[in-house]
Design a protein that fits this description.
The chain is of the alpha+beta class. It has nine helices and 14 strands. 26% of the residues are buried.
C-alpha cells in the first residue's frame, strides 16, 4: 500500500467498501424477502386451515372431510400443498400426501416455530415443508374430540422464490454499484483538488510567480501550507542574514586589498616591476575568490526566485563592458527580445552573464553576438565571440567544473565557475562549446513568458 498513490488508495478502499455494501445488501434484502414470503405463506395456510376446519366432522369414531378444498393442489399427489388431521391415534390426510404421514411428533413441545409461526417438518419425497399446526376441539355435536390440524407447504417454493428475487435484484445492485462508483470518483476528484492546487502553488513558488502559499486552503491542507510559508520565511531570513554578512565581509576585505594594490604601485615606481606584478596577480586572484564566495553565500538557500527582464539585464551589462578598453573596441550585436522574463534574481543574472560577457570581451577579436530564443518554457541565451576559443582539454574541465582558479592568470576559469554556480542555483544550466568562428557560451533558464520562437 505504501507505493500506491493517494488516489489509488482511495479508489481501492472505495471499491472494497462498495462491494461489501452491495454484498451485505443482497444478503439482507434476500433474507428480508424470505421472511416476508414465509409470513405471507403463513397467512395463506391459515386461510386454508380455517376452510378445512369448517368441513371437518366426526362420523362414528372416524374423522371425515365433508367439503372439497378450494385449492386443487390438495388433490394432486406430492403437489406441495398438504393437510392432515389427527385424533386419538387416527389420521385423516389429503390426497396430496398420498401414503405419507407428516411426523407431528417433531413439532412437539420441545420444538420452536419459526418467526412466521410455521414449523419445518420433513415432507413427501424427502422435501421439507413449512407446517401450520393448530390444536382444536370439535363441537359437542361432533363428539368434542381434540384434533391436531396441520396445513403444510413445500418450503422449496419459498426457497425458489427467494432465489428468483435475488436474481432479479442483481441487475439493480450492479446499477447501484455503478452509481456509487461514479459518486466515489466524483468525491475523490473534488476531495483531491486541493492537493493539485498545492502542487500548482509550489510550482509557482519555484518559478517566482508567488511569494507564499497563502491562506485560502481547506482545513486539512491549511496546516501544511502554513508550515511551508513559515519555512519560506525562515529561509528568507537566513538568506538576508547571509547576504548582510557577505556585504560586511566584502567591505572588510576591500580596504586591505586596495592597500595591497597601492603597495604594488609603489613597488612598480621603485622599479620592482616583477614583484609588483606578482602582488597584483595575487590580489586579483584573492578578489575573484572573494567574489565567488560572496556569490555562493548570496545564492545558496534561496527558496523564491524573482523574475527579471532578460533584455534589460543583458543591455545593462553590455553598456558597462562597452565603457572598458576591451569591450569598447568590439562590435556588440544584441538580439534579445524585450518581452521575455527569466526566473532569476536580476543581480544574480547580471553576475552570471557579466562573467561570461567579460570573458568573451577579453578574448574576442572584433565582434560579440548575444541572441535568445525559447524552447518550451526555457529561455536559451547564446553569447558568441570570434576569439580563438578554448583548448579542448581545458574546455572539458570547465564543463565538468574541474578547472581551478589558479590555472588561468586572467581568471576566466573562475568567472565561468561563478556563472555556472549562479545559474544552476536558479535551476538553469550553462553549456560551453567551441564553434567554427570562435566560442559560444549558452545559458538556459526557466522563462515566465514564451511569446517568440
Amino acid at each position: 500500500m505504501t507505493r500506491l498513490s493517494l488516489k489509488a488508495r482511495l479508489a481501492l478502499a472505495g471499491t472494497l467498501a462498495i462491494l461489501a455494501a452491495l454484498g451485505l445488501s443482497a444478503i439482507g434484502l434476500t433474507a428480508l424477502f424470505g421472511s416476508h414470503a414465509e409470513r405471507r405463506a403463513a397467512l395463506e395456510l391459515s386461510v386454508h386451515l380455517d376452510q378445512l376446519l369448517s368441513g371437518l366432522e366426526q362420523q362414528d369414531t372416524r374423522l371425515a372431510m365433508t367439503i372439497s378444498p378450494a385449492d386443487p393442489r390438495f388433490d394432486r399427489p406430492y403437489s406441495g400443498l398438504y393437510w392432515q388431521f389427527a385424533a386419538d391415534g387416527k389420521v385423516l390426510r389429503s390426497r396430496s400426501l398420498w401414503d405419507f404421514e407428516l411426523p407431528l411428533a417433531q413439532a412437539g413441545a420441545g420444538a420452536s416455530p419459526r418467526s412466521s409461526g410455521l414449523y419445518e417438518l420433513p415432507g413427501p419425497d424427502r422435501k421439507p415443508v413449512l407446517a401450520l399446526i393448530r390444536n382444536v376441539t370439535l363441537p359437542v355435536d361432533d363428539g368434542g374430540t381434540e384434533v391436531t390440524a396441520v396445513v403444510a407447504l413445500d418450503s422449496t417454493e419459498i426457497a425458489t422464490a427467494r432465489w428468483k428475487f435475488a436474481v432479479d435484484l442483481a441487475p439493480y445492485l450492479l446499477l447501484l454499484g455503478g452509481a456509487l462508483a461514479m459518486a466515489g470518483w466524483l468525491q475523490m476528484t473534488v476531495g483531491l483538488r486541493p492537493l493539485r492546487a498545492l502542487t500548482k502553488r509550489t510550482a509557482a513558488l519555484r518559478r517566482g510567480d508567488a511569494a507564499r502559499m497563502g491562506g485560502d486552503w481547506p482545513a486539512e491542507v491549511e496546516p501544511l501550507a502554513r508550515e511551508i510559508d513559515e519555512l519560506l520565511s525562515a529561509r528568507e531570513s537566513d538568506v538576508q542574514r547571509a547576504r548582510a554578512r557577505a556585504g560586511d565581509l566584502a567591505h572588510g576585505l576591500k580596504t586591505p586589498l586596495q592597500a595591497l594594490l597601492g603597495e604594488a604601485g609603489r613597488l612598480r615606481e621603485r622599479g620592482e616591476t616583477q614583484t609588483a606584478n606578482d602582488i597584483v596577480m595575487i590580489a586579483r586572484s584573492m578578489q575573484k575568490r572573494i567574489e565567488r564566495e560572496l556569490v555562493r553565500v548570496r545564492t545558496q538557500g534561496a527558496q523564491r526566485r524573482t523574475a527579471c527582464n532578460a533584455a534589460t539585464v543583458v543591455e545593462g551589462v553590455v553598456a558597462v563592458l562597452q565603457r572598458t578598453p576591451e569591450g569598447g573596441a568590439l562590435d556588440w550585436d544584441i538580439q534579445v527580445p524585450g518581452n521575455v522574463d527569466v526566473c532569476i534574481d536580476a543581480t544574480d543574472f547580471s553576475e552570471a552573464f557579466g562573467a561570461l560577457a567579460e570573458n568573451a570581451a577579453r578574448h574576442a577579436r572584433n565582434r560579440i553576438t548575444v541572441s535568445a530564443r525559447t524552447d518550451g518554457s526555457t529561455l536559451v541565451l547564446d553569447l558568441r565571440d570570434d576569439g580563438p576559443g578554448i583548448r579542448e582539454d581545458r574546455l572539458a574541465r570547465l564543463r565538468n567544473g574541474q578547472e581551478r582558479a589558479d590555472e588561468s592568470a586572467t581568471g576566466d576559469g573562475l568567472g565561468l565557475a561563478i556563472a555556472r554556480e549562479v545559474v544552476e542555483t536558479a535551476g538553469g544550466s550553462i553549456d560551453l562549446a567551441n564553434t567554427d568562428t570562435g566560442f559560444r557560451a549558452r545559458i538556459a533558464l526557466l522563462s515566465k513568458k514564451s511569446k517568440f520562437g
